[in-house]
Design brief:
The complex is a heterodimer of chains A (109) and B (117). Chain A is an all-beta fold. Chain A has strands spanning 4-7, 10-13, 19-29, 34-39, 46-50, 54-55, 63-76, 86-91, 99-100, 104-108. In chain A, a hairpin with a 3-residue loop joins strand 5 (46-50) and strand 6 (54-55). Chain A is globular, with a radius of gyration of 13 Å. Chain B is mainly beta and 117 residues long. In chain B, the strands form 2 sheets. In chain B, strands 2, 4, 5, 6, 9, 10 and 11 form a 7-stranded mixed sheet that branches. Classes of the chains: A mainly beta (109), B mainly beta (117). Chain A binds chain B through residues 32-33, 35, 37, 39, 42-47, 50-51, 54, 56-57, 88, 90, 92-94, 96-103, and chain B through 1, 4, 31, 40-43, 46, 55, 57, 91, 93, 96-98, 100-110.
Chain lengths: 109, 117
């Protein structure tokens, strides 16, 4: 089972700033199998990126992803008010269990 | 865009049972994922679109059963012998395979299960 470790736990930033979130896998994985989600309390988690860098339907281009092997990054180029939330990376390669990182909370500074 | 809606959550005592439902659309594999209070997301179970293949997280094996009724567009999670550590918001999520990429593209808003004496 792949273990995903996200850092930092919390990121305190102002609207308009750039956010860089990290997700590290316990062993090398295909970038095809790394996904990112955004979650606000009381709402449905929302898929942002799949295959490490492909934006899901309706996701604005301020969200981008990169990485390979064990290290992956989600970048939000300019934070909008609606972007303050918890972000999770997910590993899913058709074998189960699918696994999630512990999450990074992006909060308003 | 398709939507998912969970129902059936509530407060129960340890050792009791509860059945969750998720109104679905389309013929897709489906997952249950949960989030305990103050914790992150945790995968619970998967069922393929035809209902034949089912897979469970180790911590629910033998206690939870995932099933579906495609004629009613409904996914279920039967939870037996509930424990206090099963307290969580339970989400259903749609499974997608897209040219070698696997992900869960649509989620419901969740239903809260509280297990307490």
């Amino acid at each position: 089972e792949i273990v995903l470790t996200q850092s930092p736990d919390t990121l305190s930033l102002s609207p308009g700033e750039r956010a860089t979130l990290s997700c590290r896998a316990s062993q090398s994985i295909s970038s095809n199998h790394l996904n990112w989600y955004h979650h606000k309390p009381g709402q449905a988690p929302r898929l942002l990126l799949y295959g490490a860098s492909s934006r899901a339907t309706g996701i604005p281009d301020r969200f981008s992803g990169s990485g390979s092997g064990t290290d992956f990054t989600l970048t939000i180029s300019r934070l909008e008010p609606e972007d303050f939330a918890v972000y999770y990376c997910q590993h899913y390669d058709s074998s189960l269990p699918l696994t999630f990182g512990g999450g990074t909370k992006v909060e308003i500074k | 865009q398709a939507q998912l809606e969970e129902s059936g959550g509530g407060a129960v005592q340890p050792g009791r049972s509860l059945r969750l439902s998720c109104a679905t659309s389309g013929f897709y594999g489906m997952h249950w994922v949960r989030q305990a209070p103050g914790k992150g997301l945790e995968w619970v179970a998967f069922i393929e679109n035809g209902g034949g293949r089912k897979t469970y997280a180790d911590f629910v094996k033998g206690r939870f059963t995932i099933s579906r009724d495609n004629s009613k567009n409904t996914l279920y999670l039967e939870m037996n012998n509930l424990r206090t550590e099963d307290t969580a918001v339970y989400f259903c999520a749609r499974d997608i395979w897209n040219r070698g990429k696997y992900y869960t593209d649509i989620w419901g808003q969740g239903t809260l299960v509280t297990v307490s004496s």
